[in-house]
Specification:
Blueprint (H helix, E strand, L loop, with lengths): L23 E2 L6 E5 L2 E5 L1 E4 L8 E20 L3 H9 L6 E9 L5 H13 L6 E2 L6 E2 L6 H17 L7 E21 L2 E4 L2
Parallel strand pairs: 4-9, 5-8
Antiparallel strand pairs: 1-2, 2-3, 4-7, 5-6, 5-9, 9-10
Length: 196
């Protein structure tokens, strides 16, 4: 096995990280990229600014914001998250464009599901910043391709969140774009809370 220094594909500066993260952040030019067998791939990303009133311990958690065309071919739905989701879709009652938020870090299954559902149904609004301002960021473990596959899982999870109702949904999901979004969270007495 050969070990080599990771360099930024944009400015060629060496990249140093304290933790194992599939996304490499260049502090020199701001480029974020990942590597696979085909080489380095730059990633579009946004960093949400932390609410100035937040005082507790903060973390940036990465999410893939997957912009999708969600086409509902047939359904029998009463309430639930998909009903809520259908009212938010841009394009009409039978489908349109929407953002699905896929957590990109290793999280417990219940936390993953809760964050994915809550952020997809209630897309966060935030101001942007240029850097992480020395706030610890959780490592990214999913590639954009894996996030696109997980978007389908999140869509199904939205329907499965309402127990006790047998509902039918026949849909098609086509990914248009993926973007890495770093959202700030505060560690509080009730766990992690969004801090935008």
């Amino acid at each position: 096995m050969k070990v080599v220094q990771v360099k930024c594909p944009n400015c060629e500066q060496p990249i140093y990280q304290k933790q194992r993260d599939n996304m490499f952040h260049c502090k020199n030019c701001g480029t974020i990229h990942y590597r696979d067998l085909k080489g380095p791939h730059s990633v579009e990303y946004e960093i949400a600014d932390v609410n100035p009133n937040v005082r507790g311990r903060q973390y940036y958690i990465p999410f893939w914001r997957v912009y999708c065309h969600f086409n509902i071919r047939s359904r029998d739905i009463e309430g639930g998250y998909v009903h809520k989701l259908a009212t938010k879709i841009k394009g009409g009652d039978n489908g349109g464009m929407l953002y699905i938020f896929v957590p990109a870090s290793d999280l417990e299954a219940s936390t993953f599901r809760s964050m994915a559902v809550n952020l997809t149904v209630n897309n966060p609004r935030y101001n942007l910043r240029r850097d992480f301002s020395n706030v610890e960021r959780m490592p990214t473990t999913l590639t954009p391709e894996e996030a696109a596959e997980m978007a389908d899982f999140v869509a199904v999870t939205l329907e499965a969140e309402k127990p006790g109702k047998m509902q039918y949904l026949d849909y098609d999901l086509k990914v248009q774009e993926t973007k890495l979004i770093y959202l700030p969270f505060e560690q509080g007495p009730n766990g992690l809370q969004l801090a935008v």
